[in-house]
Design brief:
4-stranded antiparallel sheet; monoatomic ion channel activity; transmembrane helix; 5-stranded antiparallel sheet; TRPV; Methylamine Dehydrogenase, Chain H; 31 strands; repeat; membrane; alpha+beta
């Protein structure tokens, strides 16, 4: 074999190798360039792409029984949007290929096993060949046509009396192809195709598939039975009669044709009208043609209108109830009614409008309750969830997302899998109706659409609570379901940057504290996991793993002994266990519940540079640093978009969960090498700077000109990196880190040039100052820059961020304290600028020298004399030196104060000592203690946030040699159990103190209980009204008596 398969498949192949050829087994698990791997122990299905060899999808909501009545069958639709899966039971499930979520499940109760599954009619129907239950009928094959997207979702059965598919019973083959009504079956035993069915048989496939599309026998020409002014279109202001036609002899079913709507109303048992169907149009009808069958209670309506915008004539036909899609048309009507919400005038019309909206909502609820799979399949085909979102019906959305999940979805189906109604999508149905006859097949990627979540976000008006609530409901629904399958979050991934604004910030924080962001587990084949890294991860807080499940291509040049040793190990592993289920072939990891979080859109980077030769890449890197390729935010990955927005707002709370921390850790592994290289270049530049300026060593110790050339080259290179970053970031570039980067390199280069040219001439005092002073400040900046560059390491970054956080917290207090110092310094300057004006003479020292032992020596008196106009003798004669002298009071230096015996000076000094030394200095110490504790608690997020900023810078750079980690669809990680427990407790506390908006919506609509329908409620109200009437009549009769 050329491939190394996943362990569970490899074990089966090794077993088959002992008995039979494994070709048949491999054929059974391959479908359209995909390899499917079933894991019975962990109840999952993996799908590997045979072109990229990567694991593309994992299906979780499946049921794999240990005992089956047939082999598993996989069938991918023609346009690659759906997967039909049969696991050996009598149930077939439909899954979305874009996210792996299950859409619907159909149980074939009379089937013993399924022989073949295929999509037909442009993926609109499912062709299923089954063998009936052996206890009832012997060797009877049935053809089942499952109408996936019709309103009734019927399964039409035709018994194969002509034995068209009898050959499929004798073989494990399930490969069936359709072309021009010819069915071809492939048999691996004989390596040949046979005609399982062809047009020369007695029954044509076209008749089988379309047998339900029959015309009714009795028709009547359209005529209006009754015309009267009924406000079924309350937005119509002009008085106009609408057409009403009865569809039954009892006249309980009414067909109402208005200007832009077609409505079918039915009277229930209490003579109340119930809406059974509604169809809406944007333009007024120009012609109407009706045919109906009263006995069958159906009609055929042909409508035509003119599109005023496109100047086109359009026609549409409605065949109710056989071919009309009641649910789809009702959802479209909800959006239409919302757009006309401001048109009804008057209280009566507004009341009728609200009643029509309520009846339409009730019609949708009834359809969903009677057939939950109808909603899921219709949403895949017709995108009806978008209509509901645009209609902004929060009660209906609440029912679909949550109440029906509790009433219907939480009840497990026969296979033990929970059913959900709404399925997130990013691609519309790949084949449009008018494109059905087109020969060109469109891939699923060419049909991308706006997801329901992005639609809700983009339709949000500023300050509109209703719109924000819709977004919050979708986030709640997706995140709750993501605990079982990360496929629920793949639309959230792309919407995450759009959620990072003030309108949605509370809901985004609540989302990131959901359990799926810290406890979502995934089973991964152990052969793809680095065990040493795994052990290290269990000891650390969060550790990302470079796990890429894929099919491995074996080395063809492998030696004979190596190949023999691998086979020996596989046989030993197989014989050491008795069954497949006993083999521990997986490792439990945690996964970031955001698929494609780090994947960029197509053509996001410059591909031409990556196609350059190695020599050209090296030459370009030597003479010019890497440039920024990605400038447009639309070309950013969702991960990059999110961290850049957080960096611009200095918001790092979004990283306070294991999943986001794992993403940062995963990306930092690739970015770290680039920034460590930058640190190394800076160190070499600093050493050559010291050599060229004579700060260390002599000129004879190393070649002066060699170090000078290196200094200029590295200085140019580092400066070019800063210029490229400045051009890319623009105003965002200016920050403390970037400013010090630019200032240190620029001043060092200027100092080197200054030293080189001034050393040529004769040295003098002025020249020495021009050299030494810039060197001093350059060295200071280089050391500070070196200290800040050590923030690339986690521990030093902790201290640096702690210091910066403390400075950010106390700088208002420092400014206040400095103003106080200036105030006292200014006051002292006014008092002592010219002390002679106040007749003030400082108290100097006086010394008397007398000697009685030495004759002739005159007694001498020495007195101290002050030059009060010089700052060295009087700090306060100059304003700046006065402020500096007062600042020294804080440090305990009270120089020159004892020389002045003047009461205002004593008052000022005492007040300064009380305010600045006793109060403010101790207050600063106490304040810094509290700030330190807060900074210590938040320093971890600050370090992660800074690394995120570095990653945001690295991600937009060109990568001439590629990235060894790449951008996988899923990011796996592990962490210590202690950290996991702490975060889960923190998240639980946050969720308990920040209640979801959904708890506030419980009052919106609770009338549609599972056991009490609206009709039953109406009947109860009708009976109560009759009882009240009888009681009233009884009271009146008693009163008369």
């Amino acid at each position: 074999s050329e491939y190394e398969f996943p362990t569970i498949i490899q074990v089966k192949i090794d077993k088959l190798y002992q008995d039979l050829s494994c070709t048949r087994f491999l054929n059974s698990i391959v479908e359209k360039n995909y390899l499917f791997v079933e894991d019975y122990k962990y109840q999952r299905l993996e799908m590997y792409n045979l072109q990229s060899m990567d694991l593309e999808l994992t299906f979780h909501e499946i049921f794999l029984p240990k005992k089956t009545s047939g082999n598993s069958i996989f069938s991918i639709s023609k346009y690659g949007s759906l997967l039909a899966y049969y696991s050996g039971t009598n149930c077939i499930s439909i899954h979305l290929m874009e996210n792996g979520l299950k859409v619907a499940t159909k149980e074939f109760t009379d089937a013993f096993k399924v022989l073949s599954i295929s999509f037909i009619n442009n993926d609109e129907k499912l062709f299923v060949v089954t063998e009936e239950d052996s206890e009832k009928v012997t060797d009877e094959v049935t053809i089942n046509i499952w109408d996936l997207f019709t309103f009734k979702c019927d399964v039409h059965k035709i018994v194969d009396h002509l034995n068209i598919f009898s050959s499929l019973q004798k073989s494990n083959c399930h490969s069936v192809a359709f072309s021009n009504e010819i069915i071809l079956a492939f048999f691996p035993d004989t390596d040949r195709f046979i005609h399982a069915y062809s047009p020369d048989k007695f029954i044509r496939l076209k008749d089988i598939i379309n047998q339900s599309q029959k015309s009714y026998s009795k028709t009547d020409d359209f005529k209006v039975i009754k015309e009267f002014n009924v406000k079924k279109e309350p937005w119509v202001h002009k008085r106009k009669n609408i057409s009403i036609s009865y569809l039954d002899e009892e006249k309980t079913i009414q067909l109402i044709i208005g200007e832009t709507t077609v409505q079918v109303w039915r009277e229930n048992s209490i003579n109340k009208q119930v809406l059974d169907y509604i169809w809406t149009n944007q333009e007024k009808f120009t012609t109407v043609s009706l045919k109906k069958d009263v006995f069958k209670r159906e009609f055929y309506l042909s409508l035509s209108w003119t599109d005023n915008k496109k100047q086109e004539h359009n026609e549409f036909m409605i065949h109710w109830p056989n071919e009309a899609h009641v649910l789809k048309d009702a959802c479209v009507a909800m959006e239409y009614l919302y757009k006309r919400r401001d048109e009804p005038v008057g209280t009566k019309n507004l009341s009728k409008y609200k009643d029509l909206v309520a009846c339409t909502e009730r019609l949708i609820k009834t359809c969903i309750k009677n057939n939950p799979d109808l909603w899921s399949l219709s949403e895949v085909r017709y995108d009806i969830m978008a209509n509901i979102i645009r209609s902004k019906s929060i009660p209906l959305l609440n029912k679909i997302l949550f109440h029906y999940q509790e009433a219907v979805g939480i009840k497990q189906d026969r296979m033990g899998v929970i059913r959900y109604l709404h399925i997130p999508r990013e691609y519309e149905w790949p084949m449009k109706t008018k494109e059905i006859n087109s020969k060109s097949a469109k891939t699923i990627e060419s049909n991308s659409k706006e997801s329901d979540l992005m639609l809700a976000i983009n339709n949000t008006s500023d300050g509109c609570r209703r719109d924000i609530v819709i977004v919050a409901m979708l986030l709640e629904y997706y995140s709750n379901n993501a605990e079982k399958n990360t496929g629920w979050m793949f639309t959230v991934t792309k919407a995450l940057p759009s959620l990072n604004n003030r309108n949605f910030e509370p809901y985004l924080k609540e989302l990131l504290y959901k359990p799926c962001f810290g406890s979502k587990e995934e089973y991964v084949d152990s052969k793809f996991v680095n065990q040493s890294k795994l052990k290290y991860g269990y000891r650390s807080g969060i550790c990302s793993l470079n796990v890429r499940p894929r099919l491995l291509i074996l080395n063809k040049n492998m030696s004979f002994m190596s190949s023999l040793w691998n086979k020996f190990k596989s046989n030993i592993n197989w014989r050491s266990k008795e069954t497949d289920e006993e083999i521990s072939h997986v490792t439990t990891l945690r996964v970031v519940p955001l698929p494609d979080f780090t994947i960029y859109p197509t053509n996001a980077t410059d591909i031409t540079y990556n196609n350059s030769t190695l020599l050209l890449k090296l030459i370009k890197l030597i003479f010019w640093p890497r440039v920024y390729l990605v400038h447009n935010e639309k070309k950013f990955s969702p991960f990059l978009n999110l961290i850049r927005k957080n960096a611009s707002r200095n918001v790092y709370e979004f990283y306070d969960n294991p999943a986001m921390e794992a993403c940062i850790d995963f990306k930092w592994e690739a970015a770290r090498a680039y920034f460590l290289r930058h640190l190394l270049l800076f160190i070499v530049f600093s050493i050559t700077f010291a050599l060229n300026t004579g700060i260390i060593l002599d000129d004879q110790a190393i070649s002066y000109y060699s170090s000078l050339i290196i200094s200029f080259y590295l200085g140019y290179y580092l400066l070019a990196m800063e210029i490229a970053q400045l051009y890319h970031e623009r105003m965002k570039y200016f920050g403390i880190y970037n400013f010090l980067d630019l200032a240190s390199i620029s001043l060092a280069l200027v100092t080197i040039i200054n030293t080189y040219f001034l050393n040529i001439g004769e040295e003098d005092e002025y020249q020495n100052k021009e050299i030494i002073i810039p060197q001093a400040f350059a060295v200071l900046l280089l050391w500070l820059e070196f200290l800040l560059l050590t923030r690339y390491f986690k521990r030093t970054a902790t201290y640096i961020n702690m210091i910066l956080n403390i400075l950010k917290a106390i700088y208002p207090f420092l400014i206040f304290m400095f103003i106080v110092v200036i105030a006292f310094g200014h006051a002292m300057h006014i008092l002592l600028e010219k002390p002679t004006l106040l007749a003030l003479i400082p108290n100097g020292d006086t010394y008397n020298i007398t000697s009685s032992s030495i004759p002739g020596l005159v007694n001498t008196k020495i007195e101290q004399v002050f030059e009060l106009d010089k700052p060295i003798e009087n700090y306060y004669t100059n304003f700046l030196s006065s402020v500096m002298g007062v600042y020294f009071w804080v440090l305990g230096r009270w120089d020159q104060l004892e020389e002045w015996d003047f009461w205002p000076i004593h008052v000022i000094s005492i007040g300064a000592s009380i305010l600045m030394v006793i109060i403010m200095q101790n207050l600063l110490i106490a304040f810094m203690t509290g700030v330190y504790e807060n900074a210590k608690n938040n320093v971890k997020l600050a370090v992660i946030g800074y690394r995120a900023d570095l990653i945001a810078d690295y991600e937009t750079l060109e990568k001439p040699f590629g990235s060894h980690r790449g951008n996988p669809r899923y990011i796996y990680y592990v962490g210590s159990s202690k950290y996991q427990e702490e975060w889960m407790a923190k998240a639980e506390e946050y969720r308990s103190t920040h209640k979801s908006i959904l708890f506030e919506l419980s009052y919106l609509d609770d009338s549609d209980d599972e056991d009490i329908t609206n009709e039953k409620l109406d009947e109860k109200l009708f009976k109560m009204q009759n009882e009240l009437t009888s009681i009233k009549e009884l009271l009146l009769s008693n009163k008369d008596k």
